[in-house]
Amino acid sequence: MTAAIVMSAAGAALGGLLFGFDTAVISGATNALQSEFALTAGSLGFTVASALIGTVVGSLVAGVPADRYGRKAIMLAVAIAYVISSLGTGLAQDWSVLIAFRFLGGIAIGAASVVTPIYIAEVSPARFRGRLVAMNQLNIVLGILLAFLSNYVIAQILPPETAWRWMFGIVAVPSVVFLIVTLLLPESPRWLAVRGHRDRAVAAMTRLGFSDPAAELVRIEAADMREASKGAPRLFQAAHRLPVACAIAIAMFNQLSGINALLYYAPRIFELAGAGADSALLQSVAVGGINLLFTALALLLIDRFGRKPLLFVGSIVCAAALLLVGWQLERAAPDGTLILAGLLVFIAAFAVSQGAVIWVFISEVFPSSVRGKGQGLGSTTHWVMAAIITWLFPVVADAVGGWVFAFFGAMMLLQFVWVWKVMPETNGVALENMDLRGTGA
Question: 152, 277 in Cβ contact below 8 A?
Answer without folding.
Answer: no
